[in-house]
Amino acid sequence: MDTAEWSLHIRGLVDHDTTLSWEEFLSLGPVTDTLDFHCVTGWSRLGDEWTGIPAEAVIELAGPDSSVVSVMVHCADGYTTNVPIEYFSSDGVMLAFLFEGEPLAPEHGFPVRLVVPGLYAYKSAKWVIGLEFLGEDRPGFWEQRGYDDRGDPWLEERLD
Predict the structure, then answer these.
(1) What is the pLDDT of residues 20-39, one digit of tens each?
(2) Can you tell me the distance from the alpha carbon of 145 to that of 6, in angstroms, rounded to the nearest whole number?
(3) Which of 55, 80, 93, 101 is such that its CA lies 20 to 30 A from the CA of 31?
(4) pTM (two decimals)
């Protein structure tokens, strides 16, 4: 997928269903942050530099209803994962397009991947094309297969 073809669809319990082109997405204001990345298999990468659009900017644009409890992340390959709103809206969460100053490699989610430093990497979905704000907790791909709904690495929440 090329950035000229890519778009981000934002929908669900929001004031503003919208679709952003690449240019509109970038206009939300990229930030660079140093974040940790934790895999459910037990390894971590500490202090990686990511650049992207803060999830908070998307939340502000969308205007989610107060009843929202999670965000379903939709990906170009059909993958989905749910992220509890309290994690999606936390510091450091971003829709990243650069890793260590370079565009994401295709196998790592080019053009955009979600980065949720406070949760296991199965919540940091690759090839993101949609965000759906939900009033219920709906399981995504790995959650349907027994992975923990939240996936907090500090609590070792791997399997339900």
Answers:
(1) 999 999 999 999 999 777 77
(2) 29
(3) 80
(4) 0.91
